[in-house]
Amino acid sequence: MKKECVTMLLAGGAGTRLGALTKNLAKPAVPFGGRYRIIDFALSNCLHSRMHTVGVLTQYSPLILHKHIGVGKPWDLDQKEDGLTILSPYTVTNGGNWYLGTADSITKNINYIEQYDPEHLIVISGDHIYHMDYDKLLQHHKQKEAEATISVLEVPWEETSRFGILNTTDNLRIYDFEEKPVNAKSNLASMGIYVFNWKTLRNYLEEDAKSSTSSHDFGKDIIPTMLADNCRLFAYRFEGYWKDVGTIESYWEAHMDLLKEEQPFSLDSDSWRTYSHDSNLAPQLIEETATINRSLVNNGCIIAGKLDHSILFENVEVEKDSIINQSIIHPGARIGKNVELERVIVQENVTIPDHTKIIAQQDEEPIVLSHTVGQKDADAAISHTIQ
Amino acid sequence: MHTVMGLINLEHEHDFSNQLTGSRCGAAIPFGGRYRLIDFTLSNMAKSNINEVAIFTRSKYRSLLDHLGSGADWDLDRRQGGLFILPPDWNDPHDISQGDLKHFHNNQDYFERSSAEYVLVSGSQFITNTVYHDFFQHHLDTNADVTLLTTTYDELLPEHKQCMKACVDEDGTVYSVKQDSTCKHIFSGVYLIRKSLLLELVEECIANYKNHFFLDGVIANSDRLNIQAYNYQGDSSIINSVESYYRQNMALLDRQSYKQLFEKNNPVLTKVGNQAPTKYSESSIVNRSIVATGCVIDGQVENSVLFRGVHVSEGAVIKDSIIMQRCVIEPGAYLENVIIDKDVTITKDQVLKGAKEHPFIIAKREKV
Question: Could you say which of A157, A217, A291, B261 has the lowest number of CB atoms within 10 Å?
Answer without folding.
Answer: A157
